[in-house]
Amino acid sequence: MSYLVSSEENLVRQAIGGDQLAFTQLYDNYYDRIYRYIYFRVRSQAEAEDLTQDVFIKALTAIGSYKWRNIPFASWLFRIAHNQVVDYLRKQAKEKMTSLEESTALSTNNPVTTTEQKLESEDLAIALQKLPSAQQEVISLRFIAGLPIAEVAKSLGKRQGTVKALQFNATASLRKIMLRE
Amino acid sequence: MTKKLENIFNECVERMLRGESIESCLKDYPKEADELRPLLITAVNIERRAHLVQPRPEFKGWARVRLEGAQIYARQQKQPRGNGFLVWRQGWALALTAVFVILFACAGTAAAASDALPDEPLYPIKLTTEQVRLAFTFSDTSKTKLHTRLIEKRSLEIAAMARQGKTEQVAVATERLVKQLEKASYMIGEVEQTEAKPLIAIPKTATAPELSAAPEPEAVPEPEKDEAEDTRQLKEFVEGSTSGNIAILESALEDTPEQTKPVLQRAIEISKQSYRETPQEVGDEDKAEPTIVNPEQVQPSPQK
Q1: How far apart are CA A49 and CA B229, in angstroms?
Q2: Does the pLDDT of residue B300 top 90, yes or no?
Q3: How far is Cα B249 from Cα B157, in angstroms, rounded to an integer?
Q4: Contact residues on chain A for B50, CB-CB shorter than 8 A
Q5: Is the separation of the CB atoms in A165 and B6 below 8 Å?
Q6: What is the Cα–Cα distance from A148 to B44, expressed in whole angstroms?
Q7: Residues sharing a CB contact under 8 Å with residue B111, sequence separation 6 or more, in sequence order
C-alpha cells in the first residue's frame, strides 16, 4: 500500500510539473470512480459524462497550484467533482426539472446493461436521494467512489469522527429505505 | 457506546473493502455482531450496486483525447515567444499587435494570416487579429455574431486538419472550438438579459466571408430596431451558422484518415450539442443561462 501511495504521489508530482503522460495516467486511474460518484448524484448518463470531463479539465487547469502536503490528490479531485455536482444541481433546481420519479421512469441512458441490474442501481440512486446531503456525500465518497475514511474527511473538510458517524447513520437509513421499497 | 459502534462498523467496512468476509470481522466483536451484521450487508450491497454502473468506454476515450488536446493547448499558451531577451507578456503582445493592426489595417501580413491553419507560422497572428476585432466590437449582439463567425473559422480549421490526418492538431483545434462555443453561449445569455440601450457609436464589424482580412473599425451608429426582432434575427443567424458548421465537419469525415476520425467525430458531437442547446435559448425567457465553464473556479473551498 505504501508503494502504491508513493507511486501515485510521484505521478501527481510529475503531473504538477506539466508531464502530460502523468496527468493522463491519473485520468485513467480516476475516471471510472469520478464518473460513478457523479452519476449517482445527478442520475443522468449524459450529464455525468459531461461533468466528469469537466472535472478533469478543471483539475488540469488547477493542478499547477495543487500541493500534495495539504490534501491527498483523491480528496482534492473529488472536491472538484463535488463542486461540479453542486453547481449542476443548483442549476437544475432553478430550471425546475422533472421530479425524481419521472426521471427514473423516463431515463433511457442508463449505463447498466441488464434490466435487473438497472433496477438495482436505480433503487440505490433513489434511496440515496432521500438521505440528507451530508449523508449522501459520505456514502457516495465512501462506497461509490471507494475513498478511505481519512480521504473522505479531507474532501469534505470534516473530522474523521464526524464522517464515521455520518457513515454509520447513513447506512442504517439506507437499509430502512431499501427494505421498504 | 454509540461512538464505539461507529468505529467498529468503520473498521469492519475497511476490512471488507480489503476482501475480508463479514463474519470474519464480526468474530472479533461478538457483542455487536447482531446489530452490525445487517448494516455491513447493506454496505456490501451499496458497493455492489454502485459498481454495476460503468462509464461508456467510447466517451472515456473521447474525453481523453480532448484532455490531451487541452494539455497541448495549455503548453502552447505557456511557451514564450521570441528569443531569450524578448519574452513578451500576452498583454503587451496584444497591445503591440493592436497598434500594428490599426496602423497597417490592410497590410499583407494580416491578410495573409487570415487563411492560416493551426500548424502554420502565421496562425498566432490570425488568432491575435481576431482578439483585436473582438476588442473593437462593442454591442452584445455584434460580439455574438463575431463569436459565431469565429466558430465557423474553427470548424473550417478542424475540417482542414482532419483531412490531412493531423490528429493532434484536430484535438487542439477542437479545444479552441469548445472555448469559442462557451464564449458565444455566454454572449447569447448576455443578449437575453441586456435591455435595449441607446448606442453612441458601434464599429462596423466585418461582413465578408469566413476567411476575411482584418477589419477597419469605423463608428457607425446602429439604427433603432425592435428588440424582439433583433433577437429573432440573431437566433436565425446563430442557428444557420451552427448547422453549417456541422455540415462542414461532417463533410470532412469521408476524406479523413481512420486514425483521425474519432477526434473529428468528437468535434461534430460538440457542435451538435451546441446546436441543441445554444440557439434554443436565444430569445426564450423561460430557459436558464447556458452553463459556463469558468476555469478560475477551480479551487474548491473547504466545507465546514
Answers
A1: 37
A2: no
A3: 10
A4: 36, 40, 121, 124, 143-144
A5: yes
A6: 15
A7: B213, B214
Please tell me if residue B1 touches chain A, with a CB cutoff of 8 Å: no
What is the residue whose three cell numbers read 446489530?
B35
B255 pLDDT tier (thresholds 50, 70, 90): confident
Buried/exposed A148-179: b ≥16 CB within 10 Å, e otherwise: bbebbbbbbebeeeebbbbbbbbbbbbbebbe
Q: Is B71–A121 a contact, with Cβ atoms under 8 angstroms apart?
A: no
- Cα angle vertex B34, ends B31, B36, to 5°? 95
Closest CA to B138 of B220, B235, B227, B233: B220
CA dist., res. B121 & res. B118, Å (int): 8
Cβ-defined contact of B39 to A175 (cutoff 8 Å): yes
Sign of CA dihedral B159, B162, B168, B171: positive
E strand intervals along chain A: none
Q: Which three cell numbers stand for residue B63?
A: 474525453
Q: Which residues of A touch B75 (CB under 8 A)?
A: 18, 20
Quick check: ipTM above 0.85?
no
Instruction: Please report how many Cα atoms fall inside a 13 Å half-sphere around the Cα of residue A156, on the Cβ side.
Output: 25
Main-chain phi, psi angles of B220, to 5 degrees: -130, 110
Asked whether the predicted pLDDT for residue B49 surpasses 70, the reply is yes
B275 and B182 in contact (C-beta within 8 Å)?
Answer: no
Separation CA B101–CA B215 (nearest Å): 9
Q: Residue B87: is its pLDDT beyond 80?
A: no
Q: Could you report the per-residue pLDDT of B150-185, keeping only the tens digit for each?
A: 888 888 889 888 988 888 888 888 888 888 887 887
d(C-alpha A73, C-alpha A69), whole Å: 9
Q: Residue for cell digits 479531485?
A: A77
**Alpha-carbon dihedral sign for residues B7, B9, B14, B19:** positive
Query: What DSSP designation does B136 have?
Result: T
Whole-number pLDDT of residue A80? 94
Strand, helix or coil for residue B196:
coil
pTM of the model: 0.57
| B73 and A CB contact within 8 Å | no
Helix, strand, or coil (residue A106): helix
B7, B50, B302 ranked by CB distance to A36: nearest: B50
Contacts A150 to B, Cβ<8 Å: none
- Cβ-nearest to B53 among A27, A95, A121: A121
